[in-house]
Amino acid sequence: AQKVTQAQTEISVVEKEDVTLDCVYETRDTTYYLFWYKQPPSGELVFLIRRNSFDEQNEISGRYSWNFQKSTSSFNFTITASQVVDSAVYFCALSSYNYGQNFVFGPGTRLSVLP
Amino acid sequence: SQTIHQWPATLVQPVGSPLSLECTVEGTSNPNLYWYRQAAGRGLQLLFYSVGIGQISSEVPQNLSASRPQDRQFILSSKKLLLSDSGFYLCAWTPLYAAGTEAFFGQGTRLTVV
Fold it and tell me: Residue A114 in contact with residue A15, Cβ under 8 Å?
């Protein structure tokens, strides 16, 4: 069975602090895909990044960075110099080809960035 | 470009009333379609997914049903709503036969059953 764990239910930081959101996954498949989504108060899920299991290269996009480590089955997300607009619920998700196109989402981490 | 439309945005319905939520995708053909539910303060639960017209897979037993009468139309229904059906419902799509692509979500319907 596939599973995604986001142990941090809620995080509060002060603006300009760095914050890391943890994601740990479980799968028996050798080919799989990991995702991060942002859900602002409006509710719509916004896609942030996709990673496949063969690409462990970390990625940086502006203030966002992602650390994928297969050895620990983790795909963590760091926001540098957080801003109030980063306040949202963040979801980590997993899909694999053997499971068709279905996605397994983690429970989400609610991030509050205080001014 | 592809877009996904979901309506209504909010809905308040009495217990025992029927439900119909509609989702349509534009700009693509043969998409995989999904219905997710998000209970207050919780994660996303997959309810139904469809790989083609009339092909519906249910992930959890519940008071809801889904139909796909047209290629790019996905409908979530209930004959009699329960209080526990309250939540935020999200429709999503992915390209067919494209493993590993991200899912694109609609703006959601916030359903309150009273």
Answer: yes
At position A97, the amino acid (one-letter code) is Y
* Nearest Cα residue in chain A from B92: A45
Nearest to B44 among A44, A100, A105 (CB): A105
CA-CA distance, B59 to B49, in Å (whole number)? 8
Q: Which residues contact B78 (CB under 8 A, 6 or more apart)?
A: B18, B19, B63, B64, B65, B85
At A41-60, the pLDDT tens digits run: 888 899 999 999 988 888 88
Backbone angles phi, psi at B99, to 5 degrees: -65, 140
The more confident residue out of B42 and A46 is A46
Cα–Cα distance for residue pair A61/A72, rounded to 1 Å: 23
pLDDT of residue B39: 82
Within 10 A of B97 (CB to CB), how many other CB atoms are there? 10
Q: Note the pLDDT tens digit of each residue in B72-103.
A: 999 999 999 999 999 999 999 998 777 788 89
Q: Quick: pLDDT tens for A77-106.
A: 999 999 999 999 999 999 986 655 678 899
Query: A43 vs B100: CB contact, 8 Å cut-off?
Result: no
Looking at CA atoms only, how far is residue A33 from chain B in angstroms?
6
Chain B residues near residue A95 by CB distance under 8 angstroms: 99-100
Which whole number is the average pLDDT over B7-17? 96
Of A47, A50, A105, the CB nearest to B43: A105
